[in-house]
Write a structure and sequence with these properties.
The structure holds 2 protein chains of 2 kinds. By secondary structure, chain A is mainly alpha-helical. Chain A contains 27 helices and 2 strands. Chain A has a two-stranded antiparallel sheet. Helix content of chain B is 73%, strand content 3%. The longest helix of chain B has 34 residues. The chains are: A mainly alpha, B mainly alpha.
């Protein structure tokens, strides 16, 4: 059975793909049938993934399974569709199928009554198939294909409620911003193909250690990193992710928190052998990740929309993962990817439950005192928030701690301090959200909130269990089994350090305490802080005005240039064409004395003119020949 | 004698046209049915050729030859290989779809469909002919129906249909004048070398010409074929021409007719004059960047859907040009794939735009909004064409672009980097246009529009299927192309892509 699941791991993406085809071609008239097909297929994929993981983790760490079929090939270029099953892929398979399954079940409740349910589940299946194809990819060509496909699923699902201008614009923004990243990613892939003649991960990882020309490897690494910067919404391409919250909340949980946005982190981990060969590239990754973590966390403290707070939190946590990879702590980065997938999807689904319970309200200041009416949602949300804040012994504690440890042990003291600061901010903004929305003085929550149905709360409970326990796999309690398997040559695996554990926990606790003092006890009034630091607050509330700057640049540079070039095309190039035609026509007229006004005649004149030119040229040719 | 499958494929539409002309003008139903059946027959036959062609054996197959003008060495010679089969198939996919895209035409039906069928035969003939004279003959056959169809059935917006038709025709003629000059020079020179008059392409390709001669004649060809392929800055006919032309002509013109330019550059330019090609290729590569970037920028400023797709088509031809100019197996494979891919995509786009225009009488992006509410199938058609256009994997266009980029990158690093920016610009203008037309709140003024149904679905089904199948199973087409290009490359003798740095 285990062997079967491994050799047939290609079924894991294929089943959701078949579900998509079935829904798209035949079943779209029957919403509940479509939903069932989709959930059933991802359910089977989840079981297969679990079997694969069990098998992979029972082998010795270095063992992998690889198989592929020819897809696009010619002498000098070979792109296969294949699968590479190793511990890294196995973890991702379990995370993706698990969260996708729970999110789809939850969607049964959340999307109830929506006219587009069939297509919703169709896109969900296509997304699952693409994401799983990406995870299993054994070469850069394949990963690029699925990379784009998860992007287009994201586009469709952000714009799912396409009747809204905001959803439409957010979808376009997401796709285009990602395309900017993919521009570099694609160039990196082209470079790899030209330099090494292969795109296969195993072959490249064998070739790169012996390749010493850093002047070539550095641009390759930097260009490849463009892709993760776009997909994992790192600064400066982060602008699309907060807007992506226009999509249905389960989509935000699955795609824009747990899985797709983590694909960038996954890619860096997968291609760790390339980045790790170039210290400057690693530094770049670490700095981009660290900056994004701090920058997004600072924005999150000034937002009022429950989903936007979580979105900036996701940005920040993705930055954390990137930073981990950049300092060389590959295990820590992937470990945090996994724990984050569980607790962040829990938080998003919890937020979705609140939004439904509050009748489409997303402003935390218009909530308040929800806790009594929505106990399951509230307490699972708090578990998620504690896990995110990194309070022991929840999952986020273990993974965040490893990242800080990695930064410290690798000598990146500045990034370590930054990481502790982010841990503090994270605890603060999360518990600002918890205290205001769930326990706030506003009675709106108590008056109108209602708990969500079991189909939504059960996934919350399951994810809450995962958010509590998932961290144990890389704890001393389980002998760091995760790090034993998920590792890369050259990656660091520092020994635990009690001081670091104490510091980071204190930072998180003080963040919670401060949030409690301000937003629960109101020892310090939030309004007073807002007024006192009105400039800073405005900058944070407006997300450092980066969207405005991009918008201005886009309009001035791109659309401005477009108009100038169109003017050039109409007046210069076409002007020249029309002038030639006019000149030819006039000459013909003059020679003919008469002017009959027939369009056809003009055509003949022009042609005659051209022929004369040509004959002259032809004479030239023949003279040259003679 | 074997069954002359190529001649049959080629002349079934002509037979259809003759039958149509024999019918009374008011029997519009019968006329349309004849057009549909004859294009379907050609499509089925070309699919059979596509399947039956022996990829292992390669070279020209299904050949036919009848001596014609013996003094000039002209033969009625047909044959197909891995380069021409995708384009023959493309012609028939689009031809069949174009008939259904024109199903609503009610005036001068007889003239319309007979000219359309002649046009299809003319285009197909250029891809099937293995004799230069026959090639040129078919090329000229194309000009007449195009001109008549545009001025009789076109539409006037920014420019009048008369202006558009004339511009289109004159550019075609200028191109063909240069070609003719080049062809005659080639014929004369070859006869001087061997003493035997011949128009046979394989024969002409087997000779060695002096380098200056090759450069000069290739320059003529590059200008003639380049104009046809809307090479910058000789592209001015293309957006205006498509905008003025009726739907079916836009589909065929953007879809396959301009591909004659790319096909000719490869088949006659590279194959016969490799020395000239090597010298002039960098110039083409530079101009190709003009196509890719300049035209993509202009798309951003356009409001008329047909102009957007028109300029977009100019932009995408830049990929084909840089693929050809990079002169290696991978890039040329990509260029041919891209011609096929762009053909089905552009034809689908124009079919959808034509359908919408027919019902709403406007093509301005700002007039629409939220059309996906009223017309979900049309929206699906637009999305497939749009996503294909921006090179989404899973669509055949991605295969073309990716292959071109890999091939071109090994020859021109900087140029290719600039060309790859096209994927970002394309995403911007395509998604904007589609977003503004299809998404947003429902507009009640368009509630009367009917979604695609019946015959209107045919272009979407046929072309959409081709886009997806080609994208999901690229080896079906690429292996065929590769079998044809492999032979060319042996002739030009350039590098393969591999560990070269």
């Amino acid at each position: 059975m285990l062997e079967f699941s491994l050799h047939n791991a290609w079924l894991i993406p294929l089943l959701p793909l078949l579900a998509f085809a079935l829904i798209g071609l035949a079943m779209h008239r029957w919403p509940s049938v479509s939903a069932m097909i989709s959930i059933l297929s991802i359910g089977i994929s989840m079981l297969l993934s679990a079997l694969v993981a069990v098998l992979v983790f029972s082998l010795s760490p270095g063992e992998i399974y690889e198989a592929s079929v020819r897809w696009l090939s010619m002498p000098g270029l070979q792109v296969n569709m294949g699968m590479l099953v190793d511990p890294l892929a196995a973890v991702m398979l379990v995370v993706v199928t698990g969260v996708a399954f729970l999110v789809q079940v939850y969607s049964l409740g959340y999307m109830k009554g929506d006219p587009g349910i069939a297509s919703y589940f169709g896109y969900q299946s296509l997304f699952a198939a693409s994401m799983l194809g990406l995870v299993l990819a054994n070469n850069f060509g394949q990963i690029f294909v699925f990379w784009e496909l998860v992007g287009v699923c994201s586009y469709f699902l952000i714009g799912f409620w396409f009747g809204k201008y905001s959803a439409r614009d957010a979808a376009i923004k997401a796709f285009v911003t990602n395309r900017v990243g993919d521009f570099g990613f694609l160039l990196g892939i082209l470079f790899l193909q030209i330099v090494f003649g292969t795109l296969n991960f195993q072959e490249l990882s064998a070739a790169i250690p012996g390749y010493t020309n850093a002047a070539v490897l550095l641009p390759i690494a930097v260009l490849l990193f463009f892709g993760p910067v776009g997909k994992s919404a790192q600064f400066p391409l982060h602008v699309w992710l907060p807007d992506a919250m226009e999509g249905p909340t389960p989509v935000s949980a699955l795609i824009h928190a747990a899985t797709m946005v983590a694909a960038g982190v996954y890619l860096v981990a997968r291609a760790f052998f390339i980045f790790n060969a170039i210290p400057q590239a690693m530094t770049l990754i670490a700095i981009v990740g660290g900056l994004t973590a701090l920058f997004a966390a600072s924005i999150a403290i000034a937002q009022n929309d429950i989903k936007r707070i979580l979105a900036y939190s996701t940005l920040s946590q993705l930055g954390y993962m990137m930073m981990a990879l950049g300092v060389g702590a590959m295990t820590a980065g992937v470990f945090h990817l996994m724990t984050h997938a569980f607790f962040k999807s829990l938080l998003f689904l919890g937020a979705g439950s609140v939004i439904i319970g509050m009748h489409e309200e997303q402003d935390i200041w218009k909530m308040g005192n929800i806790a009594p009416k929505m106990p399951v949602t509230t307490w699972t949300f708090i578990i998620g928030a504690l896990a995110l804040a990194g309070i022991p012994p929840l999952s986020g504690f273990w993974s965040k701690d490893e990242i800080l440890l990695g930064a410290y042990a690798s000598g990146h003291t500045g990034l370590y301090i930054l990481g502790v600061l982010v841990a503090f901010l994270t605890a603060f903004y999360m518990f600002r959200l918890v205290f205001v929305a769930f326990f706030g003085k506003n009675t709106a929550g108590r008056d109108k909130a209602h708990e969500s149905p079991a189909v939504m709360t059960i996934p919350l409970l399951v994810l809450a269990v995962a958010a509590v326990l998932a961290g144990l796999v890389n704890s001393p309690l389980m002998h760091h089994v995760f790090g034993h398997f998920i590792n890369a040559p050259g990656a660091i695996q520092p020994h635990p350090n009690t001081a670091i554990i104490v510091f980071s926990t204190l930072a998180a606790l003080s963040g919670i305490l401060l949030a409690w003092l301000i937003y629960q006890r109101e020892v310090i009034k939030a309004e007073v802080i807002k007024e006192k630091f009105s400039m800073a607050y405005k900058v944070l509330y407006n997300k450092y005005y980066i969207d405005e700057i991009y918008g201005w640049l886009g309009v001035r540079l791109v659309d401005g240039a477009a108009r100038v070039l169109f003017w050039f095309d109409i007046h210069v190039i076409n002007g020249f064409v029309n002038l030639t035609a006019w000149f030819t026509g006039k000459s013909g007229e003059t020679l003919r004395y008469t002017e009959d006004g027939q369009v056809q005649t003009y055509a003949i004149y022009m042609f005659a003119g051209v022929v004369i030119v040509l004959i002259t040229a032809l004479c030239g040719v023949f003279t040259a020949l003679a | 004698m074997e069954f002359p499958v190529l001649s049959t494929t080629l002349f079934v539409p002509v037979i259809g046209a003759i039958l149509i002309m024999a019918l009374p003008a008011k029997k519009t139903g019968a006329i349309k049915n004849i057009a549909a059946v004859s294009t379907l027959a050609s499509l089925v036959l070309s699919l059979l050729v596509f399947i039956a062609y022996d990829r292992q054996q390669g070279s020209m197959q299904f050949t036919e030859m009848i001596p014609w003008v013996q003094d000039l060495g002209v033969n009625y010679a047909l044959g197909v290989d891995g380069i021409s089969i995708p384009l023959v198939l493309l012609t028939n996919l689009i031809g069949f779809s174009a008939v259904f895209a024109s199903w609503k035409i009610e005036e001068r039906v007889r003239e319309f469909f007979s000219l359309l069928l002649l046009l299809i035969t003319g285009v197909m003939g250029t891809f099937i002919a293995t004799d230069l004279f026959i090639f040129f003959l078919f090329y000229e056959v194309v000009v007449i129906p195009i001109y008549l169809l545009v001025i009789m059935f076109g539409s006037s917006k920014r420019v009048t249909k008369e202006y558009a038709g004339m511009k289109l025709t004159i550019y075609l003629l200028i191109g063909s004048a240069f070609l003719l000059t080049g062809l005659i020079a080639l014929f004369v020179k070859a006869r001087a070398i061997t003493g035997v008059p011949s128009m046979d392409l394989v024969h002409l390709a087997s000779l060695d010409y002096p380098l200056t001669f090759e450069i000069m004649v290739f320059a003529f060809m590059a200008f003639g074929f380049g104009t046809l392929l809307s090479m910058f800055p000789f592209h001015a006919w293309s957006p205006d021409g498509y905008a003025g032309a009726p739907t079916a002509v836009s589909m065929i013109h953007a879809g396959v007719l301009k591909k004659i330019g790319g096909y000719g550059l490869i088949r006659i330019g590279l194959l016969v004059l490799p020395g000239g090609a090597r010298i002039i290729a960098p110039v083409i590569a530079v101009l190709a960047l003009g196509n890719v970037v300049y035209a993509a920028y202009i798309c951003l400023s356009q409001k008329d859907l047909k102009y957007i797709v028109g300029y977009s088509s100019v932009s995408h031809m830049g990929y084909v040009l840089i693929g050809i100019a990079a002169l290696n197996l991978i890039s040329i494979n990509g260029a041919i794939m891209m011609m096929f891919a762009h053909g089905v995509m552009a034809a689908l786009f124009f079919a959808m735009i034509g359908n919408l225009y027919e019902k709403s009488h406007t093509r301005n992006v700002d007039d629409f909004g939220g059309l996906a509410h009223q017309m979900p199938r049309l929206a699906a058609g637009f999305m497939i064409a749009g996503l294909a256009s921006l090179g989404l994997p899973g669509m055949v266009n991605f295969i073309g672009e990716f292959t071109i980029f890999v091939g071109a990158f090994s020859t021109y690093k900087v140029f290719t980097i600039i060309a790859v920016t096209g994927i970002v610009l394309t995403a911007v203008y395509i998604l904007r246009a589609l977003g503004y037309v299809l998404f947003g709140p429902r507009k009640p003024e368009w509630d009367h529009l009917q979604d695609l149904k019946g015959p209107e679905m045919v272009p979407l089904m046929v072309l959409g299927t081709a886009i997806l199948l080609g994208g999901i199973f690229p080896f079906t087409i690429m292996d065929l192309i590769n079998s044809g290009v492999g032979e060319i490359i042996a002739q030009i003798g350039t590098l393969y892509v591999g560990g070269v740095l």
